[in-house]
Amino acid sequence: MHIVIPDDYQNVILTLDCFATLKGHQVSIYHDAVDDIRLLAERFADADALVLTRERTRIDDALLAHLPKLKLISQTGKVSSHIDVDACTRHGVAVMEGRGSPIAPAELTWALIINARRQLFPAMQGMYDGLWQVNLGQRLAGQTLGIWGYGKIGQRLARYAQAFEMPVMVWGSDASRQAAVADGHRAAPSREAFFAESDVLTLHLRLAESTRHLVTAKDLSLMKTNALLVNTSRAELIAPGALLEALNLGRPGAAALDVFEQEPIFDPAHPLLNHPAVLCTPHLGYVERAGYELYFGDAFANARAFFNGEECVLANPEVRPPRE
């Protein structure tokens, strides 16, 4: 079996313990970011299976047309909009997904909240530049944490907030709001109140057509001038250009971002990187060693099971795995 793994930006796949489970198979790993279909087709031409790192490579009909040998896409974590599953089915390519974990994304979100509120990044920069105590941050205790999306990550953040003495307010589906109330939190009475009353507002929704561009300029205009918006989920949850415009207008007063519409970002002149009210990290939410062992361990196990003819759960069960 020839497995191709693109987008290993950090050159870490070979260091994972789970990589040893691929012993005896041919594995090709690429460490750059490529979206040129001709180059991708060349790299994937001899692959029996692709192991994808989250959503870094898009798989669509145009690319699959160049890959007649490909039999399997083994996704780390959950399948999302970067894979055209219908196109995979038409080309006879099976798709398997793994598990997700809320732990690392929740921890990263909380790190951004603390850093942004206490203004640690500019304070540290000042110290390294020979200065001392260049700014004044804010404590979290007493500030209202607004959570849009009360799933596994949102619930974990709500527990963090309790430890930091922050009241929690939740917006989302009826089920989310009811679950939040059952856990002792407050459900926002309206979408408008959610944006207007949150001191720290964090987004935790899956990207789908129903959630794409869900957060509008009007929503952001309701936020406090000293509020912080945090997005570690997907940049496309916010309408294009709306956040930068809102920050320039002063509502919200700040943002902490781990996700961007175009990734990776190599341009130091990017407007969000240069905005004085924005704290940015390079999509680190799931980038953590234990998480990688889980994601890639599942993806490698799924690939082995598929080609061994074992019982498999496919995202497109119309495609039948090979049988011994």
TrEMBL record:
The keyword NAD applies. It comes from the Bacteria. Keywords: NAD, Oxidoreductase. InterPro entries: D-2-hydroxyacid_DH, D-isomer_2_OHA_DH_cat_dom, D-isomer_DH_NAD-bd, NAD(P)-bd_dom_sf. It is an enzyme of class 1 (oxidoreductase). GO terms for molecular function: NAD binding; phosphoglycerate dehydrogenase activity. SUPFAM superfamilies: Formate/glycerate dehydrogenase catalytic domain-like, NAD(P)-binding Rossmann-fold domains. Pfam families: 2-Hacid_dh (PF00389), 2-Hacid_dh_C (PF02826). Residues 111-285 form the D-isomer specific 2-hydroxyacid dehydrogenase NAD-binding domain. Residues 24-312 form the D-isomer specific 2-hydroxyacid dehydrogenase catalytic domain. CDD domains: PGDH_like_1. The keyword Oxidoreductase applies. Gene3D superfamilies: NAD(P)-binding Rossmann-like Domain. Belongs to the D-isomer specific 2-hydroxyacid dehydrogenase family. This is D-3-phosphoglycerate dehydrogenase.
